[in-house]
Specification:
Layout: H1 2-27, H2 47-50, H3 74-93, H4 96-100, E1 111-116, E2 134-139, H5 148-157, E3 162-168, H6 172-178, H7 186-192, H8 206-228, H9 230-235, E4 239-246, E5 257-263, H10 269-280, E6 307-313, E7 316-317, H11 324-337, E8 351-357
Length: 358
């Protein structure tokens, strides 16, 4: 019995070995039947995976204003401007609701102003309270065609009765147009393309030629605007005025003067003077406060200096040729025009009486 068991055990081990060896032979096929090796894909095929990879994180930038060592460095200048801007804004906040309520819901400007983007040209040179009064459009060279949509919005949608084109002495855009615009960037060349200037007079000094070109550009912009809004100009609903802001005193009439040179394409000095007398006289729209703008226009400082009292509504004087009711009605009408017909305007009117010199 023991012998039989050992024989069976030996037989079983041999069979297991045979089976194991057979399995190993089946795992490895004959050399003749081996499939040829498949070459690895070239390295150039790797970018295909990048197409489905997750996008890289956006670039991260450090917080500025920490390491500048000179007040002339860009970061230092930016820090200074922002600090002043935030401080000025705090002062504006301090004006409170009374200041902002009259125009919080709608704007009712009296003038659309096209002026140069030059940083030296700011609206406080001709309007000490420009809020809700000056609809300002700015670009290099104070050009009408480059911002026609904005100009149309001011004139046709906000119904400003005045379109004021303000050029300025020492205009860099005009000087660039006089030179070689091809040397400028494509964007600047594109903006200057519509700025057409007459050739300089023979024998004129370069500085005088520059001033002549600035004047010619203002006249050209007034011409273009007058033609574009011809119907409104002919009906008297719009007056187009061209002026030069002379902070260099190139015109010899004082630093900072706003010199009117064109009214509805009229440039004759006699007609301009008559226009200015009408504007600043007692019968003008500014009424008794008209001479307050004399220094900013062509009249000499202190002209007609007669103490007078005037009533002011929403920061603007009531003219001698209108009543308080007329002015209030105009304020309401302007507010209504800025809203859909189905909505009623909410208007706050503040009044004050002041004494000043004419």
């Amino acid at each position: 019995m023991l012998l039989l068991t050992l024989s069976l055990a030996a037989f079983g081990c041999n069979q297991l070995k045979a089976l194991a060896g057979g399995n190993k032979k089946k795992e490895k096929p004959p050399a003749a039947a081996e499939a040829p090796a498949v070459p690895a894909p070239p390295a150039a095929a790797e970018p295909a995976k990048a197409a489905v990879a997750e996008p890289a994180e956006p670039a991260r930038y450090g917080v500025p204003f920490a390491w500048e060592s000179s007040p002339n460095e860009p970061l230092a200048k930016a820090r200074g401007f922002l600090a002043e801007a935030l401080h000025a804004n705090q002062l504006a906040i301090g004006l409170g609701r009374q200041h902002y309520a009259p125009f919080a819901e709608a704007q009712t400007p009296r003038a659309t102003v096209i002026t140069c983007a030059d940083s030296r040209v700011q609206s406080n040179a001709w309007d000490q309270t420009p809020e809700n009064d000056d609809f300002i459009v700015r670009n290099i060279g104070n050009q009408v065609s480059n911002a026609l949509g904005s100009v149309e919005y001011g004139v046709e949608e906000l119904h400003t009765p005045l379109l004021l084109v303000v050029g300025h002495t020492g205009c860099g855009a005009v000087k660039a147009a006089m030179g070689k615009p091809d040397e400028l960037s494509p964007g600047i060349r594109s903006e200057l393309a519509s700025l057409k200037l007459p050739p300089a007079r023979k024998g004129v000094k370069p500085e005088d030629a520059w001033t002549d070109a600035v004047t010619a550009n203002v006249n050209a912009q007034v011409q273009l605007a007058t033609e574009h809004f011809a119907e409104l100009v002919h009906s008297g609903e719009l007056t187009v005025v061209g002026a030069l802001y002379d902070f260099r005193n190139d015109l010899g009439k004082g630093y900072g003067r706003l010199q009117v040179i064109n009214v509805n394409t009229n440039t004759d000095s006699t007609r301009i003077d008559a226009f200015l007398k009408a504007v600043q006289g007692p019968g003008g729209a500014a009424g008794a406060a008209g001479a307050a703008g004399a220094v900013g226009l062509n009249a000499p400082p202190g002209a007609n200096a007669v103490p007078t009292r005037s009533l002011t509504l929403n920061g603007k004087p009531v003219g001698a040729n209108e009543t308080v009711e007329d002015r209030v009605k105009k304020i309401i009408d302007r507010a209504q025009r800025a809203l859909p017909a189905s909505k009623k305007p909410y208007v706050t009117v503040s009044a004050s009486e002041t004494e000043h010199a004419e």
